[in-house]
Task: structure prediction
Amino acid sequence: MKITSIRSHVLQCDMPEELGYSQQYYAKRTAHLVEVTTDEGLTGWGECFGPGNVALANKAIVERVIAPMVLGMDVLDRDVIWHKVYNLLRDHGQKGMPIQALSGVDIALWDIAGKSAGLPLHKLIGGAHRTDVAAYGYGMMLKRESVADHVARFEDEAAAIIGMGFSATKMKVGLGARDDVRLCEAVARGAGEARFMVDANHAYTTSDAFYVGRALDELGAYWFEEPVAPEDHDGYRELRAGLRTNIAGGEAEFARWGWRSILENRGLDIAQPEVCALGGITEYLRVLALCHAHFTPVVNHVWGSAVAVATNLQLLAAMPPLPGGLHPWEPMLEFDTTENRFRDELLAEPLDIQGQVARNSGRVTIPTAPGLGVTPDLAFIEMYEVR
Ligand code: CA
Result:
């Protein structure tokens, strides 16, 4: 079965309101889907991490750089294709956009492999260790409003997200260390008995991260995500050694060689690989093995459309317990509670994560149809595609 075409679809729309995290405000939602077709009529879908104009640049890499390398190759030769592309792009980007672009292509090849075998992806990988997974809801984004307004809104929103049925919630910080502590206190109040996590999107110096982290130790936060720049391995190691709160990160790391470095650095309590960025499923499985070889639990980073969510549900199903037990540590599905029609309306049969969470005590079922287990609606893609 040969690859006959590789096409990118960048979807974009205006969001109902502008939202922010520690690095920027944004008012547009983007998703970058990859569609691979074969000479036997099977089509596969993948997704590349990367918002806004990054998605448009990645589209050019998918269609003009990667596609010419692999058209005509056997679609089932995923690992051969991965290494051909990686080796030819090594001189031009071992991390970042070339690998994000490769990720979407690789995921689409896995989707086809599953459809070709008539098996869901988790079965292809080795079976389901769980048939459903707990979801945590993130929200509490930054807005152009006062600190006091943030504080009031964050407390209400944390309570609302837990009220929707999510088993935990995650907030953004980024107003500055002192104000951020007030936000964390508000979320701790709003979340009540439920777990809460804090995502800094690498906004802090190490000393500011310690200031916030010591407050999180007192508040009982479950994890402190991307406290410092991903390149700051020393900062990560010092924070992990000096704080009780779990240090999480890794969404901005790529491929096994980058992950080897951050794992050997011993700076992470919880690893957050992003399958749509780090090199696709083929590479995710190697990174997962590396994480587990370091006894570092994994909670996948999830961003993007329903294709990314379905991919992650499959991977979460296939994730072995670490270290195992009667009541083992369990991963969670990351879920963005802000409006995202590319997730909620892309599929012919929507995953309805929010509905599942509300009905099933915060748990989401793993799709069982072949491949990723979901089918994008072509008319919907047509409506939002950037040309
Ligand atoms: Ca994050």
User: Anything to note?
Assistant: The first helix runs from residue 52 to 70. The pocket of calcium ion is lined by residues 199, 201, 225-226, 251 (CB under 6 Å). The radius of gyration is 20 Å.
